[in-house]
Specification:
A two-stranded antiparallel ribbon has the order 1-2. The longest helix is centred in the N-terminal third of the chain and has 27 residues. A hairpin with a 2-residue loop joins β1 and β2. The chain contains 7 helices and 2 strands. By secondary structure, the chain is mainly alpha-helical. The protein is globular and about 45 Å long. The N terminus and C terminus are likely disordered. The protein has one domain. It starts with 9 loop residues before the first helix and ends with a strand.
């Protein structure tokens, strides 16, 4: 049995490359901060401070890198879907923050519920998975999960804040995002030959 898959992975490769490059830059950007002392009234450990800063960087880098990839590929329909997802996520998040007024674990303010960092990260990850598939979705979900864990570890959120943020972010993208492959008529066709069974895939651009 032989498998022959013909497909154009240029789109996902370009977006993945942009994401990886931006994440790498974000990691290097956080290194000097690990040695800095904080001015907060809450006594963070060095590890907590470093994780907190890295989540601040990741929550910016992930959507910005995704936006860059979408623009590079001229995926205007994807851009619209991502924008609608983002606006919905942010609207729901801030309405709840000012309505619930839950105090953060570090007592810095009363905007703990839900986690905006987690919501943004999971909205982006779900957008990537829905629009371009698991090849981009898996690494994005890894980053989003780290952000959620990091917000709890750094005492910026309770665990239920993070779960609510993840649900809001993922839900917003599930509502608006449609698969890129479906729009471009991704078709799989099996065929038989004396050498075995072959599978081909075509993608219309």
């Amino acid at each position: 049995m032989s498998i022959n898959v013909v497909s154009d992975w240029k789109t996902s490769h370009n977006i993945l490359l942009v994401i990886l490059m931006c994440l790498l830059c974000g990691v290097f950007a956080t290194l000097p901060v690990y040695s800095q002392s904080g001015t907060e009234s809450f006594h963070y450990t060095k590890a907590q401070r470093g994780v907190r800063v890295s989540t601040d960087v990741a929550v910016i880098v992930l959507p910005v890198a995704t936006l860059a990839g979408v623009l590079i590929e001229h995926d205007w329909e994807g851009l619209k879907q991502g924008a609608l997802s983002g606006v919905t996520m942010l609207g729901a998040t801030y309405i709840l923050k000012y309505a619930v007024k839950e105090e953060r674990p570090d007592h810095s303010n009363r905007h703990s519920f839900p986690s905006g960092h987690t919501g943004t990260s999971f909205a982006t990850a779900t957008f990537l998975q829905r629009r371009y598939g698991w090849k981009l979705g898996v690494p994005a979900y890894v980053v989003a999960t780290y952000v959620g864990w990091g917000r709890i570890y750094a005492k910026k959120h309770h665990w239920w804040d993070v779960l609510a943020g993840a649900a809001i972010g993922a839900g917003a993208s599930l509502i608006y995002t449609r698969p890129f492959a479906k729009k471009h008529e991704l078709v799989f066709e099996p065929s038989a030959s004396p050498a075995g069974i072959n599978f081909s895939a075509s993608l219309v651009f």
